[in-house]
Structure formats: C-alpha cells, structure tokens
C-alpha cells in the first residue's frame, strides 16, 4: 500500500512523525452504520479508480474541514458523505467534486510539528442533510477539554493488519492534556497549545488513512469535533506515550468563520 500513500508519509517516516495521508484506527471496532453522519471520505483519482486517503468532517452543507497535509498536493480529489463501507454502495452516499481548497496560510509542509494542519474544502454543490449526512458540531472558540476526557476517533485508516478498513471504525481515545503530552517522555516540544493529544495507551490509536478525520467528544449531550487528526508515531501507529495528535479545532474557529464568510 505504500505506493498509494502520499509522498508526505515517506517524509514523515524519516522525521519520526506520522503525518500520513492514509492514518488508521488501531484497536477499533466497527462503528454502527451512519452513527457518525458528519464523517466524510476524502478520495483521490488514480489509475482509473478512486482511493480513500483521508477523513474529514462536514461543517456546512458545502464546506468540509480536514487536515492541510491531506490536500497539500495537485491530486484530483472528491468527497463522499454518508458512506459506511467504502467498497460497496449503501445507497446513502453523496459524492461531491471540489470547487476550492483553502489551506491555513501558516501551514508549512516541511514542519508538521509547527501546527496549522487544517484546511477547508468548498464543495461544488450542497449536501442534502438526512439521517446519513449531518453537519458536525464544532466546539466553542478556545474550549479545552481536561485530561482523560472521553473521546472517539473514527476513520477508515489502516488497522492492525496494515490494510485500510472497508468499514468505518471507531476507537476510544481519551484526551491527554497539554502539560502531559508536551512532557519529554511523551511528544516534548513538538506539541503546541493549538493541538490536542488523545490516546497513547498502546492499545488504540489513529493511523494512516485517518488523517483529517475527527476526534469526537461528547459535551452537554452532543458530540463535538474537537480535533482534526494530524500526526502520530510513524514507527508503529500504536505506541505507548505517543498519543495521536490532532489540530485543536477550537483554536481555529474564527479563521474558519472568516474563510467560509468570504
């Protein structure tokens, strides 16, 4: 599968980071079909077929939030909403071409740990909201969840056997607060306050193919997307004291509003 991964995955292997274009849910279980209706599959066209590369979240009927590193290439992309099994049609899918990709202006592909790993995709048409396709709920600007707060990662990324999952997986990934995650035995100075860490128990994690996808955390009875999957530990996605690192959504609310309003 390396051939189908973005070149960035190879670069990060060298850096010891994991900004894979393709991250996996390791140790996850199959999600109930359409339990996460704001989750999308970002796919690219190659050799006559569409291939899943990243996750993302539908935040407005014509806007998707994903990771900058997922769309930082000249590939031909599409977005599929309402999917569960990537390899068969459930009749619930909505497929969109892209009209614009807006990567955060401070994103630097050579410095993943610098942060700003967030992008917005404007779809060429509007999604129809129904029981399969819904908008993600974003957290209030600046909100930060406490250590060990229960969250879930979802995605079609690589599993223990090194294959992309055909069905959407979910895994329990509690928050690791900034003080712990930026300590020397964890990620150290790679972790910025604009990131959120989750997991790191050596059992569950994100991996290649989950990038761009959500960290879903229940707040006041509804799930909010608090993170955009950014990077993990390249040597083995699932490594103790190396939690999956997400772009912290609440740090970019005003930027996203300004982009979508313009």
TrEMBL record:
<keyword id="KW-0645">Protease</keyword>
<dbReference type="InterPro" id="IPR050850">
    <property type="entry name" value="Peptidase_S1_Elastase_sf"/>
</dbReference>
<keyword id="KW-0106">Calcium</keyword>
<protein>
    <recommendedName>
        <fullName>pancreatic elastase</fullName>
        <ecNumber>3.4.21.36</ecNumber>
    </recommendedName>
</protein>
<dbReference type="InterPro" id="IPR043504">
    <property type="entry name" value="Peptidase_S1_PA_chymotrypsin"/>
</dbReference>
<keyword id="KW-0732">Signal</keyword>
<dbReference type="GO" id="GO:0006508">
    <property type="term" value="P:proteolysis"/>
</dbReference>
<keyword id="KW-0378">Hydrolase</keyword>
<keyword id="KW-1015">Disulfide bond</keyword>
<feature type="signal peptide">
    <location>
        <begin position="1"/>
        <end position="21"/>
    </location>
</feature>
<dbReference type="Pfam" id="PF00089">
    <property type="entry name" value="Trypsin"/>
</dbReference>
<dbReference type="GO" id="GO:0005615">
    <property type="term" value="C:extracellular space"/>
</dbReference>
<feature type="domain" description="Peptidase S1">
    <location>
        <begin position="25"/>
        <end position="261"/>
    </location>
</feature>
<keyword id="KW-0720">Serine protease</keyword>
<dbReference type="GO" id="GO:0004252">
    <property type="term" value="F:serine-type endopeptidase activity"/>
</dbReference>
<dbReference type="InterPro" id="IPR001314">
    <property type="entry name" value="Peptidase_S1A"/>
</dbReference>
<dbReference type="InterPro" id="IPR018114">
    <property type="entry name" value="TRYPSIN_HIS"/>
</dbReference>
<dbReference type="InterPro" id="IPR009003">
    <property type="entry name" value="Peptidase_S1_PA"/>
</dbReference>
<dbReference type="InterPro" id="IPR001254">
    <property type="entry name" value="Trypsin_dom"/>
</dbReference>
<keyword id="KW-0964">Secreted</keyword>
<dbReference type="GO" id="GO:0046872">
    <property type="term" value="F:metal ion binding"/>
</dbReference>
<dbReference type="InterPro" id="IPR033116">
    <property type="entry name" value="TRYPSIN_SER"/>
</dbReference>
<keyword id="KW-0479">Metal-binding</keyword>
